[in-house]
Write a sequence for this structure.
């Protein structure tokens, strides 16, 4: 990790750069795969599974027998942990239900909204170096709560053509309708356009590597919606001299083990903490099974010493981290000034891992600075809000002349006439 002390403001943009993610350079390769899946359906999907996942599939869909066998192989301890996480995620997301109220915008004019679940959604779950069964919960639980009628899931199989049992159990528990043994670009293309086996969906959710990210970007240009732009995962710890260096190091490493392009940042007002965290990272890193991945990730990571909390907050809001852990004496007060972050973890006993798994908040979050403009996945991500309006005679008399005036000045005479004919009809009735 790079140690930086009291950086000048002019150096902040360079300092806060993420690992480069140039998905545009992959567009030609990815477009070729998408086009072939679009044209050849299941045949192309099977060919790409053989090429990329090194597996020959007789069937793409997970059968009821495979589900039963996979679920039976999950330990009771893991089932219990996944069930606890599911309950907490369900509780938190249930609180986000939209209640539309009818509003009288003017006398005789009533407007309101109704929340409707997106009918068909597709969930992409990576299954490479770490099978993310927790992401199944983060996406399927709010989808079910939102009332989505069809929830399909794609995830890459192993070399024997099997899906990780914990993914199967989480999907069953959360109410996924169909599971397909398909990964990568071919999975995104199949959900975007549909094949003989995999249904077309209206919105695609879920993380993935740079090829999956590029595929989501391409299909979203005109054919299907996606959850958000996504890049490598990241965490920032904002800390003062009260922070526990072992906790801080553990949080930074928990992010670093995600992947070689992940980024972990410490912004601190304490030079002593900065030094102690370096020693703690070296000590803890030696015992990690994913040590090699974490080591490469730490090359993208920085420990930044600043003058005071105000500067730390300004730098944090400029960075807009996906995950932000605040370990300071007055963390509640500090948190009030956070305006750009995906999810915030307060105090020394709230690790980012809690949000990744079981606290109840969602771990599908904006990365790469998109937290300045995007929210993480929530119940709202799976619904649409349809507006309604009803105008009674007194309402049309109230706002009709204003509509006529505005339409005339925009030179849209048919718009004006749609009001005029009604106003004239009302006059004749009187």
């Amino acid at each position: 990790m790079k140690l930086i002390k009291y950086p000048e403001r002019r150096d902040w943009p360079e300092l806060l750069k993420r690992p480069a993610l140039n998905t545009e350079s992959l567009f030609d390769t990815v477009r070729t795969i998408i086009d072939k899946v679009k044209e050849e359906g299941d045949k192309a999907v099977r060919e790409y599974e053989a090429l990329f996942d090194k597996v020959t599939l007789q069937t793409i869909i997970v059968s009821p027998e495979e589900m039963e066998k996979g679920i039976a192989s999950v330990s009771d301890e893991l089932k219990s942990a996944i069930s606890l996480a599911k309950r907490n995620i369900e509780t938190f997301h249930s609180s986000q239900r939209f209640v539309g109220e009818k509003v009288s915008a003017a006398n005789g004019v009533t407007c309101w909204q109704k929340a409707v679940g997106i009918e068909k959604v597709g969930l992409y779950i990576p299954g490479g170096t770490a099978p993310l069964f927790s992401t199944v919960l983060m996406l399927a639980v709010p989808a079910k709560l939102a009332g989505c009628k069809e929830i399909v899931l794609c995830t890459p199989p192993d070399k024997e053509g099997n899906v990780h049992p914990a993914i199967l159990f989480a999907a069953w528990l959360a109410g996924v309708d169909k599971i397909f043994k398909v990964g990568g670009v071919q999975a995104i293309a199949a959900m975007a356009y549909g094949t003989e086996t995999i249904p077309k969906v209206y919105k695609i959710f879920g993380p993935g590597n740079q090829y999956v990210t590029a595929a989501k970007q391409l299909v979203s240009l005109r054919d299907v919606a996606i959850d958000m732009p996504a890049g490598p995962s990241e965490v920032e710890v904002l800390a003062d001299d009260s922070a526990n260096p072992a906790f801080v190091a553990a949080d930074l490493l928990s992010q670093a083990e995600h992947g070689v392009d992940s980024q972990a940042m410490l912004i601190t007002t304490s030079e002593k903490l900065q030094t102690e965290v370096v020693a703690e990272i070296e000590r803890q890193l030696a015992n990690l099974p994913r040590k090699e991945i974490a080591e490469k990730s730490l090359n993208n990571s920085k420990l930044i010493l600043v003058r005071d909390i105000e500067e730390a907050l300004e730098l944090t809001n400029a960075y807009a981290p996906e995950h932000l852990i605040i370990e300071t004496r007055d963390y509640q007060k500090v948190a009030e000034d956070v305006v750009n972050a995906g999810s915030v973890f307060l105090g020394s006993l709230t690790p980012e891992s809690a949000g990744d798994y079981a606290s109840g908040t969602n771990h599908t979050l904006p990365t790469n600075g998109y937290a300045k403009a995007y929210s993480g996945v929530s119940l709202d991500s799976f619904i649409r809000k349809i507006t309604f309006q009803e105008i009674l005679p007194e309402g049309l008399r109230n706002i009709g002349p204003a509509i006529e005036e505005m339409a005339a000045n925009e030179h849209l005479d048919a718009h004006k006439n749609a009001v005029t004919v009604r106003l004239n009809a009302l006059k004749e009735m009187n």
About this structure: The first helix runs from residue 12 to 15. The chain has a mean pLDDT of 96.
